[in-house]
Write a sequence for this structure.
């Protein structure tokens, strides 16, 4: 590592200590040298040396005085979150959002608009790039871009950043999202399933902070889960862990899912399924409220079902309750198998309010083991549409500050202009 430390095993230990100290400060778990030594278990001399290194690299800075424990008051340390920026994007089935975060996960600016993921990468990615450029033009003198994080609504092979056989993303299978954006912006790019990023956003900046075992469930056009185990995001061997929308819940050949299988949860309880069944009910004359909505708009969405339920429409109430029950029964299996302490539910269908959440809770408690639910919390995601963007930013900084990558760029003080860093392992 040259000036940063010795060669070989000594260099690896040096980088590991840098990562330990940096993680403790940027997470807020320790912010003075005595606290760093106590929490990390590193010697005071090592802590002092690594703090000096990180300060010289522009990642830490001195703050105000902390409380005294009997001697001279220690100086607080701050992570320099404004040293760089991260571009983030979340592509959903029916919308896309882009933003800019600082290195600490604060969302500095963002844009959101309707879109159709089925339009394909050659339509949507140019739009993402245009929105990125607009955000950058608003602050041309801002800190450099250190990386890009992207979420998409389907399985992603994390090692390559390519969607793999995504059921609702025609034209995206194997598309080199990472390569395209890395060439365009000359930075490292990471791509993941959007629900993984939502889970990460809540874990690092939302209600799930401090939680070790979490399930984040998104109920939108499709249904997917982000899994956190022992404080770490679980992606699975090929990146498709948590694809619970395609769990079979009925054996009925008439219920055909977009993935090609029959009886999938998504085909019965997702946003598209709610819209489909509400449209049928409106056309059959079973709901005057939904029929009026259909006549006005020409089509129905899950939000229309939620609005109808809020007005007491019995058909809409039944549809949302059934959706919640089916989702809850699937989650009960996860609870028994995985034993999380927190389940967060997000996505567009959660706009139906407490009715859906109540049905989900009832099914989970009815079908799960009492021990597994004794301390289980089930709540709506408080970050809502921001969770995925924040998670994308955290994904990038976590990768850049990992033991595998920090040593490859830290002496140069910035990973900007180093798209090859994504390949370091």
């Amino acid at each position: 590592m040259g000036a940063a430390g010795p060669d070989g095993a000594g260099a690896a230990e040096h980088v590991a200590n840098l990562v330990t100290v940096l993680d403790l400060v940027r997470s807020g778990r320790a912010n003075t040298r005595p606290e760093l030594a106590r929490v990390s278990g590193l010697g005071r001399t090592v802590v002092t040396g690594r703090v000096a290194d990180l300060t010289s690299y522009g990642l830490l800075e001195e703050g105000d005085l902390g409380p005294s424990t009997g001697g001279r008051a220690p100086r607080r340390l701050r992570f320099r979150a404004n040293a760089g920026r991260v571009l983030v994007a979340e592509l959903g089935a029916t919308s896309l959002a882009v933003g800019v975060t600082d290195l600490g996960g604060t969302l500095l600016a963002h844009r959101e608009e309707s879109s159709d993921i089925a339009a394909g990468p050659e339509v949507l990615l140019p739009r993402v790039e245009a929105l990125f450029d607009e955000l950058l033009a608003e602050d041309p003198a801002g800190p450099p871009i250190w990386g890009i994080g992207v979420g998409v609504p389907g399985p992603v092979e994390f090692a390559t950043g390519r969607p793999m056989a995504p059921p609702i993303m025609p034209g995206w299978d194997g598309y080199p999202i990472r390569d395209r954006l890395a060439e365009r912006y000359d930075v490292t790019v990471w791509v993941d399933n959007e629900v993984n990023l939502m889970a990460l956003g809540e874990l690092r900046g939302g209600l799930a902070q401090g939680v070790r075992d979490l399930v984040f469930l998104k109920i939108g056009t499709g249904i997917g889960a982000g899994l956190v185990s022992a404080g770490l995001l679980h992606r699975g061997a090929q990146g498709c862990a948590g694809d619970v929308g395609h769990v079979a819940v009925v054996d009925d050949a008439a219920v055909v899912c977009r993935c090609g299988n029959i009886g999938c949860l998504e085909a019965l309880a997702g946003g598209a399924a709610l819209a489909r069944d509400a449209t049928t009910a409106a056309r059959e004359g079973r709901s005057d409220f939904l029929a009026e909505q259909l006549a006005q708009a020409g089509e129905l969405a899950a939000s229309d079902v939620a609005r109808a339920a809020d007005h007491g429409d019995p058909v809409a109430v039944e549809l949302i309750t059934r959706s919640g029950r089916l989702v809850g029964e699937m989650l009960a299996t996860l609870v028994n198998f995985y034993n999380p302490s927190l389940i967060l539910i997000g996505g567009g269908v959660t706009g139906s309010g407490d009715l859906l959440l109540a049905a989900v809770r009832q099914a989970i408690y009815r079908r799960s083991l009492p021990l597994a639910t004794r301390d289980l919390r089930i709540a709506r995601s408080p970050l809502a549409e921001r969770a995925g963007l924040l998670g994308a930013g955290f994904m990038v900084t976590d990768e850049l500050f990992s033991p595998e990558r920090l040593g490859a760029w830290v002496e140069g003080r910035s990973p900007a202009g180093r798209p090859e860093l994504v390949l370091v392992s």
